[in-house]
Amino acid sequence: AHVAGRAEWNGVGALRDGYRVKVLGNVGSPADAVAAAAAGAEGVGLFRTEFCFLSASTEPSVTEQREAYAAVLAPFAGKPVVVRTLDAGADKPLPFLAPDPEPNPALGVRGLRVAFDRPDVLERQLEAIALAAADTDAEVSVMAPMVATAAEAAWFAERARAAGLRRVGVMIEIPAAALSAHEVLAAVDFASIGTNDLAQYVFAADRQVGAVAALNDPWQPALLRLVKLVGDAGTAAGKPVGVCGEAAADPLLACVLTGLGVTSLSMNHTALAGVGAKLASTSFDLCQLAARGAVAAADPVSAKLAARAPH
Ligand code: PEP
Ligand code: MG
């Protein structure tokens, strides 16, 4: 076994054998972006744009959006930034995009589903993102939240490309999308797995209800099996597959995700150094061993033990 100790991280997401995994920041504000860049993030794997407008009672104009996005892109000149279109609804309600009252908001009109009713809001946001990208030197990609099918992915990709955005992806956070990963990836350039919502939906356990939190454990083998499906599909298609949920912030789990074929890990800035140092202490072979053991385990505790064995 290898002990990671308190190794320093040099800011490059690489295993000790040279295998590359991008180590990226999750951000929702200019302050987050500065903190992520200062902590060594190689870019941004998830910019939660809805966090810019949580208290807006009316839709921000294209100009207001352009300025808000450019401020977040500014610290990442020459680096990749994945801008997620508005994930309104459920745990992140936006007053200007509130749906009619629903009995189960997490299963209702949220994320990209809002855009099916209001494509004009999506089109104005895509225009603002394209303008902000032109204002800065960041390598901007765009991705949609809460995509269920390949047809939805294609619907989004068509609009994003029409707005002039070249790199288009979707989040995989609904089990149906994970089970259709080949078809979903065929419609876009990359995917990013949102393990927070993917766990919520695969276990039918509300992420906001503490009483069911044990089911939402990212070490659950059933969740890891879905990640493997998506990782395998990404490898087969030669397209990047990231993880931008909380799972990516756990150093040992980061090794498992890498072994499952995930090519980038995006997390809160406070987790970057710990994950980066852990990855630098391991190899792709060991990550694959850990992944094989964790996926085959019976429960989260055994999954963690299986991942620790080669580490
Ligand atoms: C997720 O669901 O894992 C995710 C990264 O998105 P959010 O937490 O913003 O829903
Ligand atoms: Mg989500």
Tell me the layout of helices and strands:
Elements: E1 22-27, H1 30-38, E2 44-48, H2 62-73, E3 80-84, H3 112-117, H4 119-135, E4 139-144, H5 150-162, E5 167-172, H6 175-179, H7 181-187, E6 190-193, H8 195-202, H9 221-237, E7 241-243, H10 251-259, E8 264-267, H11 272-280, H12 284-296, H13 300-308
Parallel strand pairs: 1-2, 1-8, 2-3, 3-4, 4-5, 5-6, 6-7, 7-8
Helix pairs in contact: 1-2, 2-4, 5-7, 7-9, 9-12, 10-11, 10-12, 12-13
The protein binds phosphoenolpyruvate and magnesium ion.
Summary tags:
single chain, 311 residues, alpha/beta, 8-stranded parallel β-barrel, disordered N terminus, binds phosphoenolpyruvate, binds magnesium ion
Describe this structure in words.
Keywords: Cytoplasm, Kinase, Magnesium, Metal-binding, Phosphotransferase system, Pyruvate, Sugar transport, Transferase, Transport. It catalyses: L-histidyl-[protein] + phosphoenolpyruvate = N(pros)-phospho-L-histidyl-[protein] + pyruvate. This is Phosphoenolpyruvate-protein phosphotransferase. The active site is at 244 (proton donor). GO terms for molecular function: kinase activity; metal ion binding; phosphoenolpyruvate-protein phosphotransferase activity. This protein has helices at 30-38, 62-73, 112-117, 119-135, 150-162, 175-179, 181-187, 195-202, 221-237, 251-259, 272-280, 284-296, 300-308, and strands at 22-27, 44-48, 80-84, 139-144, 167-172, 190-193, 241-243, 264-267. With 311 residues, the chain is α/β, with parallel strands linked by helices. Mean pLDDT is 96; it is low at 1-6. The chain is 43% helix and 13% strand. Strands 1-2-3-4-5-6-7-8 form an 8-stranded parallel beta barrel, surrounded by 7 helices. The protein is built from 13 helices and 8 strands. The chain binds phosphoenolpyruvate (PEP) and magnesium ion (MG). Magnesium ion (MG) binds next to α8.
